[in-house]
Specification:
single chain; 201 residues; alpha+beta; three-stranded antiparallel beta sheet; 53% helix; elongated
């Protein structure tokens, strides 16, 4: 999108005169406040691009001094258009990578079914499994984890049992208290009434 401007002018800052373009006149007031010197501007007959505004200003009577002509002359020249980039040829597809060789493992690979194994082969497999199990069980880290999990579960179960026993005991005491209160009420209120009326023989 091309920017359009309504004002064109020049200003000098630090000894350098530059062309200035703006949409509003306030821009030139700001330049004066920033201590720019030789601030001059004109309103364009209609909104223009920088290049068109510079061409207009070159012909304007207010910008005929050498500094203004040089500043606008640099902006009036059309910018060189960059040459289009060459299109790259598509890359050749890469050949598929060769499959990685399978590493040999120390554990035996069981390829036979148990039905076709002789007693000796079966015993050899059993011995290998036992040896592997012994290695796993001998690992202190794994053994420690197993013990920790086992102990934690035992503590949780014990705590649950203690809490359940305490809850049962509290419920039993509450029920006994209700029964005792009821019996006391009955003894105080109902029993004397029956005795007075002569209902009990």
């Amino acid at each position: 999108m091309t920017k359009l401007f309504s004002f064109a002018g020049v200003s000098t800052a630090e000894g350098v005169t530059k062309a200035r373009f703006a949409r509003e006149v306030v821009r030139y007031k700001v330049l004066e406040n920033l201590k720019h010197t030789n601030v001059k501007y004109v309103e364009l007959p209609h909104e223009m691009t920088k290049e068109d505004a510079a061409k207009f200003a070159l012909a304007h009577a207010d910008f005929q001094d050498a500094e203004a002509q040089a500043a606008f002359g640099a902006k009036a020249a059309p910018k060189p258009v960059a040459a289009p980039k060459a299109v790259k040829a598509p890359k050749e597809p890469k050949a598929p990578k060769a499959a990685k060789p399978v590493k040999e493992t120390t554990a035996p690979v069981v390829t036979d079914s148990l039905d076709g194994l002789s007693n000796e082969k079966l015993q050899a497999h059993v011995d290998e499994v036992r040896a592997a199990t012994a290695i796993v069980n001998a690992d202190p880290v794994k053994a420690g984890r197993r013990k920790l999990i086992k102990d934690t579960l035992a503590k949780v179960r014990e705590r649950e049992t203690e809490e359940q026993a305490a809850e049962r005991e509290a419920a039993k005491e509450a029920a006994q208290l209700e029964v005792d209160t009821y019996m006391a009420d009955v003894t105080e209120d109902v029993l004397p009434k029956f005795l007075r009326d002569g209902n009990i023989q």
